[in-house]
């Protein structure tokens, strides 16, 4: 369980996160939605201790994440930021093997390599595992990064805009995998996502953020609501029910 | 390229290197050398060979580490102010302790090289415009500012002549008794090998490192310290060898990728081969005289560097 209590964060005296309190249940996908600048990425970076909080408490399974040892946390929680930043020439297999770093400090055992193979297989990357990342398409590269996170084998997985720049097929593939990770391997996943229809179709819970504050949190079907979304995005969004899924029409 | 070809090349060039020079020593007479020939071999040729191999291997590896940690393919001791700072350090040690022992000079030079490299990394943090070419240009400017400071003090203290011997890399003065400081590089290289995985992870950025539980700052600091240590020991004994840390790692990356575990040995060997080759050229072009190594490396190296720059899109540098 991830617990946030009265969390504050400011950059240059300008508050970006104000008094956020949240509880995220185990074994769910929780999507963070909201307009640009709402503080979604900042919040998820704080939960993964990449940036420091100014005030408040963030605990995972009752333990304060800023007190915990870095290496212990790396076995508990992993974060995937937007992955286009990496400019090293690495093969898929090399990248995935880094996921085992918290366990082996770089000297991978047979068991570690087993986990690497499993992760590669899980993401269906066997055919391209010895290719360099730069030779892959955006979707394949994103899958390689997710394979690394799977090899890291953490209970909690945080993803910051994993669908950025991906086409529909790649996006659906990623979201289906995330769903599978939760349903089959009982992971807990938190994602920042812009496409509200993906959020609506694949997540259990949604947190709507605006101007650094939580506007609404709850089950996906409660947040994907005409009134909530109007307040959130300042625009009229029509919601249609298709095959028991709530689809937002806003074009 | 297979690693055994590189090993073979190092061995062949080493043998050639041992038997070139004014005193005629042929491999056939190795077992019945005259007194004088023995002296030349032990006092001059072998120390020269060792220092070439260490300088070539270690400067290339230092370049590789600096490129990984700064996440820029064109950062190296020559383009980050490390060499210029090391030289300023040598100058300061000569001014402050007039008869400094080599080891003292080395320590002061190391401190300066370290400080210079850290300042460059700080500048790098502040720069928003992270263009691959722009950053080494900033480094070159920074290095030239430090150099001009060195020059100013050298003029004032009549040390220009002395300074220029560190300006130009030159192996012709290497003799047993004055090159042993080079061995300081070896523990640095061993550390580089032990930390190879961590350097590669640090090369993917602070967030990426933190996610995997790696202490990013600590690894970066260690890498920069190794770089400063190796650079100052090489500058002190041989002088400045330009381009080495820049081109060798980039050539290896093209065929071997960026995982340090796969590239370290290749980089070290190729660096040694390259410097051996340039040194042999320098020794035979105007035989019996010699061209300093910084000139031959500079000419061949800048040619390769321009080629790499023009083809960088193709190789993904």
Note down, in words, how this protein is organized:
Chain B: Its main location: membrane. The complex is a heterodimer of chains A (251) and B (317). Chain A starts with a strand and ends with a strand. Helices cover 35% and strands 28% of the residues of chain A. Chain A is built from ten helices and twelve strands. The longest helix of chain A has 18 residues, at 168-185. In chain B, helix 11 packs across helix 12 (260-284). Chain B is mainly alpha-helical. Chain B contains 14 helices and no strands. At the A-B interface, helix 2 and strand 6 of A face helix 8 and helix 9 of B.
Major β-sheet profile of chain B:
none
The multimeric state of the shown protein is: heterodimer
CATH class of the largest domain in chain A: Alpha Beta
Number of structural units classed as domains of chain A? 2
User: What is the residue-averaged pLDDT of chain B?
Assistant: 88
Structural class of chain A: alpha/beta
Number of strands of chain B: 0
- Label the structural class of chain B: mainly alpha
CATH superfamily of the largest domain in chain A: P-loop containing nucleotide triphosphate hydrolases
* Named CATH architecture of the largest domain in chain A: 3-Layer(aba) Sandwich
Proportion in β-strands of chain A: 25-35%
Strand content of chain B: under 5%
Q: Tell me the major beta sheet of chain A.
A: 6 strands, mixed
User: Helical residue percent of chain A?
Assistant: 25-40%
Indicate the percent of residues in helices of chain B.
Answer: over 70%
| Span of the ends, CA to CA of chain B | 19 Å
């Amino acid at each position: 369980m991830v617990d946030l209590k009265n969390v504050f964060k400011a950059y240059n005296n300008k508050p970006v996160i104000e008094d956020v309190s949240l509880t995220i249940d185990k074994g769910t996908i929780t999507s963070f939605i909201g307009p640009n600048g709402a503080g979604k990425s900042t919040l998820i970076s704080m939960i993964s201790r990449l940036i420091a909080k100014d005030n408040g408490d963030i605990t995972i399974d009752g333990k304060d994440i800023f007190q915990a040892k870095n290496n212990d946390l790396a076995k508990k929680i992993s974060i995937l930021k937007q992955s286009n930043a990496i400019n090293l020439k690495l093969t898929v297999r090399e990248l995935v093997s880094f996921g085992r770093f918290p366990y082996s400090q770089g000297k991978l055992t047979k068991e570690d390599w087993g986990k690497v193979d499993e992760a590669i297989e899980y993401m269906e990357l066997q055919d391209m595992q010895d290719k360099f990342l730069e030779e892959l398409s955006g979707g394949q590269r994103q899958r390689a990064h997710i394979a690394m996170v799977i090899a890291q084998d953490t209970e909690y997985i945080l993803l910051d805009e994993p669908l950025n720049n991906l086409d529909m097929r790649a996006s659906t593939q990623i979201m289906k995998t995330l769903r599978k990770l939760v349903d089959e391997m009982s992971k807990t996943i938190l994602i920042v996502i812009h496409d509200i229809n993906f959020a609506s179709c694949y997540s259990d819970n949604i947190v709507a953020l605006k101007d650094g504050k939580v506007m609404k949190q709850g089950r996906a079907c409660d947040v994907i609501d005409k009134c909530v979304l109007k307040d959130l995005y300042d625009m009229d969004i029509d919601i249609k029910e298709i095959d028991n899924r709530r689809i937002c029409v806003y074009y | 390229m297979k690693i055994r070809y590189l090993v073979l090349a190092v061995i062949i060039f080493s043998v050639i290197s041992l038997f070139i020079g004014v005193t005629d020593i042929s491999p056939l007479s190795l077992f019945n050398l005259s007194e004088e020939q023995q002296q030349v071999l032990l006092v001059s040729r072998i120390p020269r060979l060792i220092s070439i191999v260490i300088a070539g291997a270690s400067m290339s590896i230092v370049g590789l580490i600096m490129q990984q940690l700064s996440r820029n393919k064109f950062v190296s001791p020559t383009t980050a102010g490390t060499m210029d700072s090391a030289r300023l350090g040598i100058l300061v040690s000569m001014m402050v302790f007039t008869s400094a022992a080599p080891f003292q000079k080395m320590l002061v030079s190391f401190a300066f090289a370290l400080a210079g490299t850290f300042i460059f990394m700080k500048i790098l943090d502040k720069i928003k415009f992270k263009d691959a070419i722009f950053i080494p240009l900033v480094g070159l400017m920074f290095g030239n500012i430090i150099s001009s400071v060195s020059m100013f003090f050298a003029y004032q203290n009549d040390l220009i002549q002395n300074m220029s011997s560190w300006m130009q890399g030159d192996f012709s003065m290497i003799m047993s008794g004055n090159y042993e400081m080079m061995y300081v590089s070896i523990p640095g290289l061993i550390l580089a090998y032990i930390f190879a995985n961590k350097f590669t992870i640090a090369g993917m950025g602070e967030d990426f490192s933190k996610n995997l539980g790696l202490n990013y700052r600590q690894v970066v600091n260690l890498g920069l310290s190794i770089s400063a240590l190796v650079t100052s020991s090489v500058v002190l004994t041989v002088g400045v060898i330009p381009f080495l840390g820049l081109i060798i790692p980039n050539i290896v990356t093209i065929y071997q990728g960026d995982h340090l575990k796969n590239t370290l040995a290749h980089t070290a060997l190729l660096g040694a081969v390259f410097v051996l080759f340039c040194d042999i050229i320098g020794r035979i072009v105007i035989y019996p005289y010699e061209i300093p190594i910084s000139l031959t490396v500079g000419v061949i190296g800048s040619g390769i560097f321009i080629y790499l720059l023009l083809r960088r899109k193709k190789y993904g540098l």
